[in-house]
Amino acid sequence: MVVLNKIYTRTGDKGDTALGNGDRVAKYSDRVTAYGTTDELNSFVGVARLVAEGEMDAALSRIQNDLFDLGADLCRPDMDNDAEAEYPPLRVTPEQVDRLEGEIDTMNGSLDPLRSFILPGGTALAAHLHVCRTVARRAERLSVELSAHEAVNPSVVKYLNRLSDWFFVAARASNNGGKDDVLWVPGANR
């Protein structure tokens, strides 16, 4: 259980921060940038929830919790030492990826196939979900970049990859089942 009695600690005043294993790194390190972008994504999901209802809101709530799990996973770099940790580190699981895939398949099953690229927009919820999609893609790119030189749980990258797809399909579903998608018209303004 986390207890936060004091919000500021002054420990980061010189530009570094503590990771989940206690190591201190620069606030601009690739790892901090990756989990910071995940936190940014989580905030955008919170904005999307302002206009979401019912099952969509419940799904976004689950995703917000998963994103906190994912941030906790990314902030704990020493995966080889998980067994020796004082408490079991939180890691994203393949089952979380599988859940997203199942939800994508369910939502996509009721949508007409795309015959054009679509522009971000339509309903307010769809527009917010498209923002979430693009931030999820950035978080994925940053996590892949991090994995090129540091250990990263492979399920983190898979989750972010599926999550951006989830947001895309959810945006279409939120556009009246895709009927209100804004279609790209190549060269329309030439």
Automatic annotation (TrEMBL):
Q: What is one cellular component GO term in this UniProt entry?
A: cytoplasm
The metabolic or biological pathway listed in the UniProt record of this protein is: Cofactor biosynthesis; adenosylcobalamin biosynthesis; adenosylcobalamin from cob(II)yrinate a,c-diamide: step 2/7
Going by the UniProt record, its keywords in alphabetical order are: ATP-binding, Cobalamin biosynthesis, Cytoplasm, Nucleotide-binding, Transferase
Which residue intervals define the domain Cobalamin adenosyltransferase-like in the entry?
A: 7-173
Superkingdom of the source species: Bacteria
Q: Which SUPFAM superfamilies match?
A: Cobalamin adenosyltransferase-like
Q: Reaction(s) catalyzed by this protein? A: 2 cob(II)yrinate a,c diamide + reduced [electron-transfer flavoprotein] + 2 ATP = 2 adenosylcob(III)yrinate a,c-diamide + 2 triphosphate + oxidized [electron-transfer flavoprotein] + 3 H(+); 2 cob(II)alamin + reduced [electron-transfer flavoprotein] + 2 ATP = 2 adenosylcob(III)alamin + 2 triphosphate + oxidized [electron-transfer flavoprotein] + 3 H(+)
State where the protein is found.
Cytoplasm
Query: What's its EC?
Result: 2.5.1.17
A biological process from GO:
cobalamin biosynthetic process
Single GO molecular function: ATP binding
Matching Pfam families, A to Z?
A: Cob_adeno_trans
Q: What is the residue range of the signal peptide feature?
A: none
What protein family is recorded? Belongs to the Cob(I)alamin adenosyltransferase family.
Descriptive protein name: Corrinoid adenosyltransferase
**What is the protein's species of origin?**
Falsiruegeria litorea R37
